[in-house]
Amino acid sequence: LADDAPAGAVQALDRWIQQSGMAESAVYVSRDEAFRRFQRDFPGLADVAGTSADHPLPASLEVLLRPEAAAGGVFEAWVADLRSRPGVIDVRYDLEWLSRLQRLVRSVEAGAFALVAILGLAAALTVASVVRLAAASRTDEIEIMRLVGAPLSTIRAPFVVEGLLQGALGAILALILLAAGAWFVQLRYGAWLAEITGLDRVSFLPPLAVVSVVAAGVVLGGLGGLVASRGAARP
Q1: 7-11, Cβ contacts within 8 angstroms, sequence gap of 24 or more
Q2: Alpha carbons within 13 A on the beta-carbon side of 1
Q3: How far from the centroid of its chain's Cα atoms is residue 16's Cα?
Q4: N or C end of the chain: smaller count of CB under 10 Å?
Q5: Residues 65, 92: contact at Cβ < 8 Å?
Q6: How far apart are alpha carbons 212 and 39 in whole angstroms?
Q7: pLDDT tens across 92-147, in order?
Q8: CA-CA distance, 44 to 141, in Å (whole number)?
Q9: Closest by Cα among 68, 60, 80, 74 to 1
Q10: So what's the pLDDT on residue 107?
Q11: pLDDT tens string 170-183
Q12: Neighbouring-strand partners of residue 25
C-alpha cells in the first residue's frame, strides 16, 4: 500500500478483495507491525531497517487466496485489476515462483527415476555376472544333471535362488548403510538441519519403503539369476 493511502481507500480495497470471490481472507498489516515482523524474522538484519520511526517497510494487505482461484487467466486479470486499484503500489505473489519450483521438482523426480532404473539394471547385471561365474564352476554338475534327464527348471532353480538371496542381502546391506548415514547426519548436523529446514529431525525411511527396497532387491536379484541360469542350462 502507498504510504499516503487514505483509510477509506484501504477499507474499500479490503471490501473489494473480500467480495471478489478469489480470497479466503485479507489481513491489514500496518507499518509498525511490518517492522516488528522484520525484527522477529531477521534479527541479524534488524539494524538495516532503521528505527520504528523511519523504516522503509510499507503497510500492506496480506491476502490468502482460494486454492481453486489462484490459477488461469481469470486470476491474472484479477491481479492486474488489483494493481490498478487506488492506494496500491505493488502486488507480490509466489505463484510464478511456485510454478518454477514445481517444474524443478518434476525434473528432479524424473532424474531420480532414471537413476533408479540405471542402478536397478546395474544390480541385475552384477547379480547375473556373479551367478554366471558360479555356474561356470559347476559345469560338471550341470552336465551330470543333463545326462540323467533333469528338467531345465531343476537345473535353473539353484541359480535363481542364489540370485534372489544375493538381491535380498544386497538390499538389506544398503538399508543398513543408509540407516547408519541417517543416524550420523542426525547426530552431527541435526540441529543445523532443523534450523535451516524447520524439520525436527532427519528420519529414516518408513517401514513400507524399507519393505519395497528389499522386495525390489529380491526381484532384481531373481531376474539376474534367471538370466544367468538360461545361459548355464544351455547344452
Answers
A1: 9/86, 9/87, 10/59, 10/61, 10/87
A2: 24
A3: 38
A4: C
A5: no
A6: 47
A7: 877 777 778 888 889 988 998 898 889 888 888 888 887 777 777 777 777 777 77
A8: 75
A9: 60
A10: 92
A11: 889 989 998 888 88
A12: 64
What would the grid cell of residue 35 be? 517492522
Q: Which grid cell sits at 211?
A: 519393505
Burial of 99 (0-12, 13-18, 19+ CB in 10 A): exposed
